[in-house]
Design brief:
The chain is α/β, with parallel strands linked by helices. It has one domain. It has helices at about 20-25, 55-70, 80, 100-105; strands at about 10, 30-35, 45, 75, 110. It has a 3-stranded parallel beta sheet with strand order 1-2-3, covered by helices on one side. Strands 4-5 form a two-stranded parallel sheet. It is globular.
């Protein structure tokens, strides 16, 4: 399903061998991260600006809107941003405001796959 979209943008390490291709697809058109250490030269790489300490996922959505101007954006694996009401795993500390970022995702009309 994900491979049917015009552009498949992956975060940080991209598509790992352990990912089920049925759910995660097989294409990567762009790889993006907030650090250049993830650019291994295999895909066009977007180095994301992150002055506001947003999650990489939200930065990628904002960058896709700016660079590609798609009619719609759909995400997979953005559990904290798309469903912030879910409790975080034990011993997890993240410096991101998942509720504020969720609001931005909803304002942008981002939908969730799967």
């Amino acid at each position: 399903m994900i491979d049917s979209y015009d552009a498949v943008i992956r975060l940080k390490r991209g598509l790992l061998e352990t990912y089920d291709r049925k759910h995660w697809g097989s294409r990567t058109d762009y790889l993006c991260a907030c650090s250049p250490r993830f650019d291994h030269g295999h895909f066009p790489f977007w180095l994301l600006a992150n002055e506001d300490k947003r999650t990489t996922g939200l930065c990628a959505v904002l960058e896709a809107k700016k660079r590609l101007a798609p009619d719609e954006i759909a995400v997979i694996g953005f559990d904290r941003l798309m469903r912030p009401e879910r409790e975080d795993p034990p011993n997890t500390w993240l410096a991101h405001d998942k509720w504020a970022e969720h609001a931005v995702m909803m304002e942008l009309g981002v939908k969730e796959l799967g």
